[in-house]
Automatic annotation (TrEMBL):
The keyword Nuclease does not apply. This is Uncharacterized protein. One of its GO terms (molecular function) is oligopeptide transmembrane transporter activity. It comes from Nymphaea colorata (pocket water lily). One of its GO terms (cellular component) is membrane. InterPro entries: YSL-like. Keywords: Membrane, Transmembrane, Transmembrane helix. The chain crosses the membrane at residues 6-24, 71-92.
Length: 97
């Protein structure tokens, strides 16, 4: 039973680290380019949406613009991650004694 718990925790830790690295890279690219509208997606091979806007029709551009206009500001996103981490760190050991 200890091996299965170790595998589950190891897989969770791996996924957590992978997501955090991906998020950090995205934040770094956004800060480096100083372009708040820059969004990278895996579906178009990592190309930015601003460079692929030329190839989209008007309706697609309008739909993406409407969807992206109410984004969460970067400082609030970082504060949210830190707050969730601060809450989860002392609570998780109590859930799994």
């Amino acid at each position: 039973i200890f091996i299965s718990i170790a595998l589950i925790l190891g897989d969770g830790l791996f996924n957590f680290v992978t997501v955090m690295i991906s998020t950090a890279n995205s934040f770094h690219k956004q800060l480096k380019n100083k372009d708040p509208g820059l969004v990278t997606t895996a579906s178009n091979g990592g190309a930015s949406s601003s460079s692929s806007n030329r190839n989209m029709n008007f309706e697609d551009r309008r739909r993406i613009e409407f969807f992206m206009k109410d984004g969460i500001p970067l400082p609030y996103a970082i504060a949210g991650y830190v707050a969730i981490m601060a809450i989860a760190t002392p609570i998780l050991p109590r859930i799994f004694p």
